[in-house]
Amino acid sequence: xxxxxxxxxxxxxxxxxxxxxxxxxxxxxxxxxxxxxxxxxxxxxxxxxxxxxxxxxxxxxxxxxxxxxxxxxxxxxxxxxxxxxxxxxxxxxxxxxxxxxxxxxxxxxxxxxxxxxxxxxxxxxxxxxxxxxxxxxxxxxxxxxxxxxxxxxxxxxxxxxxxxxxxxxxxxxxxxxxxxxxxxxxxxxxxxxxxxxxxxxxxxxxxxxxxxxxxxxxxxxxxxxxxxxxxxxxxxxxxxxxxxxxxxxxxxxxxxxxxxxxxxxxxxxxxxx
Length: 273
Known about the structure:
Blueprint: H1 9-16, H2 34-42, E1 45-58, E2 70-71, H3 73-96, E3 101-111, E4 118-130, E5 145-146, H4 151-159, E6 162-175, H5 181-186, H6 195-218, E7 223-232, E8 240-252
Parallel strand pairs: 3-5
Antiparallel strand pairs: 1-4, 2-6, 3-4, 6-8, 7-8
């Protein structure tokens, strides 16, 4: 089945109504704030439309040893594959609308009520196109690049001489060993580190981070910016946890960048209400 077949007919009809070279009277949609919209335009890009990819995925069952720290590889792979399906469908929408890339990508996961093993994965972001159709801003294989950078961070990155390549991620679902009864009783009234728990969480984080870095290396990136490390259980139980690392892989636009030419970043103030 082709990627085009994955997109519902209603979505294809929506894409036809977006502004583009073949439809100058269309409208664009985005989740940008006003400031982000203006900065993306100032960077030489124009928003085209909101890109969405969705996947409903049944996560299989994997048994673990009660007293052993171990990665649950089947669950790790399921979480990665489902996110990748959602990402690919979002990228296909962007490609169909003629976008050079997607910025402000959000990856959301939620458990559906009718079955605790069924999860919904959603990828959403704003497709943008370079005003002069610059071929150098495409991602790998000529496909739209993906990035979770905000419009403001995207403008700052380009202004400093770097460009986003790909949203990279790493996942690890890990079983944290239970303590034995006598160990739990002996330490119940003491201040003491629970070393098996500390080691398990440390290992799981490192695995997720390493996988994200491997993706960036394969993409030919110089670095990963805006890294976020999520922690969640998704209803698996108290001793099963997922660490999910995600960030934007970037590289210089030109072969070399003189640090002295990079402008000072602007101070951005935000007010939480």
